[in-house]
Design goal:
By secondary structure, the protein is mostly helical. The protein has a domain of 108 residues. It contains 8 helices and no strands. Helix 3 packs antiparallel against helix 4 and helix 4 runs antiparallel to helix 5. InterPro entries: LTXXQ.
């Protein structure tokens, strides 16, 4: 269960702000210029703001697109606040029962799904306003190569690779 929580936490840390992307070669990661993040809500807030700044730059948002961008960025911020609060609640109760643990996990998953829906709804008008070149940038920026290859971000194997594994291979959790 802890492994699942860690995977969920890393996946949702950006509040479902689509796929994590890799900065272009030669670009300094946002975390390199920033001081070490604070814990809890401040950490999530900082990561969301870094992501917003990165995406604004990467997508080359024009002044005309700022209203749509602001709506999208505000949804990212709200989602980040919601997820940070849920994770803080979860971490504040490390010795809870299995039932309470499952209920909290369900609340996090539901909030993630709701937040993702809101994010898609906010992104659609922005994406529609983008120029063809900006749409290409967005398509590349939000593309998650490991999904296309059937891998999960946490290093899982695709079904094809699992089937091709030797019969004597030990399965590790």
């Amino acid at each position: 269960m802890k492994k699942t929580l860690v995977i969920l936490a890393s996946t949702l840390a950006m509040s479902g702000a689509f796929a994590q992307t890799t900065a272009p070669a030669g670009a300094a990661p946002a975390s390199a210029a920033a001081p070490a993040p604070a814990s809890g809500a401040a950490h999530y807030e900082q990561r969301v703001e870094q992501r917003i700044t990165y995406l604004h730059t990467q997508l080359k948002i024009t002044p005309e697109q700022e209203p749509q961008w602001k709506t999208f960025a505000d949804v990212m911020r709200t989602n980040g606040e919601t997820m940070a609060g849920l994770y803080e609640q979860r971490m504040a109760n490390p010795n809870q029962s299995a039932l309470d643990d499952m209920k909290q996990y369900s609340a996090i998953a539901t909030a993630h799904a709701d937040g993702t829906k809101k994010l898609v709804d906010a992104f659609e008008p922005l994406y529609t306003s983008l120029s063809p070149d900006q749409k290409k940038l967005a398509d590349t920026t939000f593309h998650h190569p490991s999904r296309a290859e059937g891998h999960h971000k946490h290093g899982g194997k695709s079904k094809a690779k699992k089937k091709a594994a030797p019969a004597d291979e030990t399965v590790k959790p």
